[in-house]
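Hi, here's the filled form for the chain we discussed.

Project: internal
Contact: R.S.
Residues: 733
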Amino acid sequence: MKNNRNIKILIATGIYPPDVGGPAQYAKNLAEEFGRQGNSVKILSYQTEKKLPPILRHFFYFFKVLFNLPGSGLVVALDTFSVGLPAVAAARIMGKKIIVRVGGDFLWESYTERTGDLITLSEFYGIRPALSDKEKIILFMTQFVLKKCSVLVFSTDWQKNIWEKAYRISPEKCRVIENFYGDKMPDFKPKEKNFIWAGRPIKLKNIGALKEAFDEAAKEDNGLILEIFTDLPHQSLLEKLKACYAVILPSLSEVSPNFILDAISVSKPFILTKETGFYEKLKNTGIFIDPFDKKDIKNKILFLADRNNYQEYKKRIADFNFLHSWQEIAEDFLSVYEELGASLEFSGEKKADFAPGENKKNSNRMKILSIGSDRNLFKENSAVRQRIIEYGSLADELHVIVFSKNEFLQRQISRNIYLYSTGSLSRWLYPFDAARLGNIIVGGEDNWLVTVQDPFEAALAGYLIKRKSRAKLYIQIHGDFLSPYFWQESFLNKIRVWLAKFLLPKAEGIRVVSSRIRESLKDIKIKNEPIILPIFVDAEKIKKSPVKTDLRQKYPQFDFVILMASRLVKVKNIDLAIEAMSAIISSFPKTGLIIVGEGREKETLDTKVKSLILSDNIIFEPWSDDLVSYYKTADLFLLTSNHEGYGLTAAEAMAAGCPLIITDVGCAGELIKNEYNGLVINIGDKKALARAIARVIKDPPLRQILKNNALESVKRLMTKEEYLKQYKQSWQI
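And the returned structure, exactly as it came back:
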């Protein structure tokens, strides 16, 4: 990117020269390069605030950033906690975009320092150990920063991948800008076999293991010397490196240690932990060790002490010619800034210039605004995104607003389809933020249909848009919200039921997914008869899909495999199936229940399984994108929900030829007929469920009848073309 304009850049950094450390040097070099490219740069580092306790320190630094934000264009915070937290909070208040560069990992560092539990960065996030109150605060504040910043910049894909999974960060929010790789500098021939270690003397640096391994190595080669430096200015460290034999850094994990890059710049061989973001790039250039294996550390030291091996690795470093200049790093940041500038901002009185707006004067165009909460829309290959692309083919314009507490996003995913996230500070602001965005999109014009994916928060947003425009409101109901099981679940659900009863009469059109739901609405005074349009089941695709995972082969210990697939939440009443299994295995000990899904009830359900001594028969699996294989190789499918709008997984199981048992919810009584193509039991009836399961296990002919009739029933479901035609017709109200 060529920068031809003066951008006012604010860099927030915890330390800055004359402070010593990699972050200080990074801030200095980045600021100087920004300046060389014609930008105005202001550095904000901790000064007198350093002497204050952490909370007060953050508080004072917050105001320092706040007072310096007016007039700033690009704001860069060089860590997630010490400056990232106050800088992001200030930027949110001032409506500024902010790039946060992720350096180390303060949460992991705090944990290892407190407990002495020497675990790697990836292990820490994998096992999620118990945190102290202080660490819980750090976690909460880190999550705040990650959600509210505009872009996260990592120095390696390795750390980016760990954090994306651990903190559930959208990949679209993350960038990788590698560290500085410069030209080689002259070095000196070492006079002795002195290995240098440099850094902060903290537990994750694994200095104890290094000293022990080095002492053992020195017994076999008494010429070995270990030098440890903890507080050297950068230039002084470089002079030490030029004259040393090699460097060593056996930390538990290292993201992208500048110490190693400095060693490469003066052509010094290095020994580095294999738990690092540098491994893929440097695996053929340096020597890597297992930080937990002192024998491995010792052997690698002795290996490099051998003159022939030493010369080989000197040559490898000489052959390593990758360069990444400060000019390129600065331009990478400015490219991210340009991306942010190109995205739509909805703040104050500003209105966005939407690309489709060129044709807004044509009143015959079908323009759809959809409001919902499925964040998977922002995942490129997700099923819901593919579905929305198909819906987009039915309209001239399709705009989709997604409830989200992440930053505001806009994406154009096809010629006429636009996605937006609300970027709300709180879930309670979802409908109001969505209404604000929607009013900008609709602009008070004719021929807009606002379709909402629930009769609650999304419908409220749609109603607020309808009040300020001439748009029509179309409410879709996917769940049986008038079931007593729904409103008894929580006080919030009671409020939702009241809200739905208020909003439904305001809608010009209502779509429900089953006759059961339409019947439940008969006492609500609505304008028009609700349209019944079930959830689409691609029976033909399911029929043709090959089996990639065979549950019977995966779990050969079971003679009979039962499958459940759903979110692990209370409404799904998976407890019922677990309790029924307790009765089943006494008669059929080789029966297995595979529960596929994720959710907040997982730990509770797992505890229940263990308390009933069912761990050998009930297995939890994470959600799978290949449920069809599971349906096709299971012997029985269960759906035990207290309420459902339709029951998509039950319909999919039928299309795959899997016999099923379902509670009397959703499409039971419509698509699923008791004793014909499935078995229907009363909600919450554990004994009836156990009897039905035992009956299916004992009666293979019954299983075949249910399977054959199910396959025959799904032939009468709509094809995709028929479904899309009806879907478009449902919009024409």
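Let me know if anything looks off before we file it.
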